[in-house]
């Protein structure tokens, strides 16, 4: 704790200032100032006394700091680094689950057994999925990891905790025959939903819902038949630049059939612009309301489910169209690396793990070809 004592030229009295260390929560330097002492000796005595008090209080504050008070500061930092929706979700899980169980504990006294007990109770006493429990644990673990960086704790008590095994969800997809049925029968539906073009984009590209709803006309190169994924739409219908990860910002080559459908849909959008004039909100979105506003994701999915029901096809999630697209490509022996790039996966391992159900058939087709080309 360095400090200095100086005579104030304006008042003729003595002032002091000293550094009281680094705030462990903000990482910023703290300074304490006092003014108006009659003599340098008085200023020195007061500074020495105050420095001793700060040292004592600082030690007490760190040992008495509760996990709740620490998390209040930690979430202020997270607010600046997480996406808005992610931050809101993490805040809800903290308030509803983490704070009631761990908030009253002293940060420096949290033990691994307490974290393990917390996880065990989530598994045994709630109906939440393994995915949800893993997310709650990641919030706790990340906060304690930062506490270790700030030197509030020596070891992260969340290390080595046993978590419930995530059960692989059975994937529901359509066959190629069902995809063709969906397309052929949709065009005969009276007053077909304006969201239909979005369903086609998913089938032909495997793009995520947010990527489809954020797609603009300027992101489509009709000459080269290429779609560029550059922005997304959140679940709150807010436009966000970029995509899920770096690999998700990508280009996707599309077939002529989809290009033709996009041209037809563009004519409809132009007509709506002309009709509304200045009342049209032009965000250049391909899928939007009649007034140009972003389509609410929930309403978009509802249109898909309604159309599926009218046609009489098995109900699948809209996201399963992405899985359907990938599975069909694998079944057609398309290179998995190309499929991974098309889907915007961070690496090919993600693709292989996600679509392992389709790989055995692909392996069989390889062995069948070997039987044909190698003579014995």
3D architecture notes:
The protein is mainly alpha-helical and 376 residues long. The chain folds into 3 domains: 3-64; 67-149, DNA polymerase, domain 1, CATH 1.10.150; 176-367, Intergrase catalytic core (hpI Integrase, Chain A, Orthogonal Bundle). Helix content is 52%, strand content 10%. The chain is built from 14 helices and 8 strands. The strands form 3 sheets. It has a 3-stranded antiparallel β-sheet with strand order 1-2-3, covered by helices on one side. Helix 2 runs antiparallel to helix 3 (84-102), helix 3 (84-102) packs across helix 5 (130-149) and helix 12 (336-343) packs across helix 13 (348-354). The protein is elongated and about 95 Å long. The chain starts with a strand and ends with a helix.
Q: Please tell me the total number of domains.
A: 3
Order of helices and strands: EEEHHHHHHHHEEEEEHHHHHH
Span from first to last CA?
A: 85 Å
Biggest beta-sheet profile = 3 strands, antiparallel
| SS elements, strand count | 8
The residue ranges in which pLDDT falls below 50 over 5 or more consecutive positions are none
- CATH architecture call of the largest domain: Orthogonal Bundle
CATH superfamily of the largest domain: Intergrase catalytic core
Rounded to the nearest angstrom, the radius of gyration is 30 Å
What structural category arises from helix and sheet content?
A: mainly alpha
What is the C-level CATH assignment of the largest domain?
Mainly Alpha
| Residues in helices, as a percent range | 40-55%
**Beta-strand percent range:** 5-15%
Might you state the CATH topology name of the largest domain? hpI Integrase, Chain A
Tally of alpha and pi helices:
14
Strand order of the largest sheet: 1-2-3
